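Hey team,

Filing this mostly as a record. A colleague (T.K.) asked me to run one chain through the structure pipeline before their review meeting, and I want the input and output archived in the tracker in case anyone asks later how it was produced. No errors, nothing strange. Just documentation.

Input sequence:
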Amino acid sequence: MELKIKGLSKTFGNLNVLNQVNVTLPSGPIHCLMGPSGSGKTTFLRILMGLEEADSGTIEGLRGKKVSAVFQEDRLCEAFCPVDNVAMVLPGSASRNKKQAYEELLCLLPEESLSRPVSTLSGGMKRRVAIVRALSAPSDMLLMDEPFSGLDEATKGLVIRHMLNRSAGKLVIVSTHQEEDVDRLNGIMVRL
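Output structure:
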């Protein structure tokens, strides 16, 4: 998969958020969006997800592709347990989905947390559930908006290793403020 983005622009009133963005993003390497707060990283991802419309420009290679995402806020079903939050995005039978979700979540969370309502989990635990859910969803492209916020360094390393193992073959775009994340992801920096 490859996205070719040409002349992408977006304004909100008098605020020019994206100005003539031209970039080609092939699958393979992880693309790390860098830029200060307000530089358009989230808006760029929202346009790719179809949640915002660009004022001008084109995106080639997106039509018919399945997208999964990690938003800045976790967007989990708070009354559901982590297993149910992940199982809901998996195709197939409910019992098989729950088993698969359980096994994936065990890679990043303690077993005792998997049957509790998400509302009782810490922020970092919720973040890991959201990441596992996005990685588990059948998709061609994975968009992650500051996915490591709220994670301590050891947990962040664990999550990155898991993410690298589970995202092979997908086009992956990660927004971050941390240049060291680019190195840890073996990523390519994309400045907005």
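Quick notes for T.K.: The CA atoms of residues 4 and 126 lie 33 Å apart. The mean pLDDT is 93.
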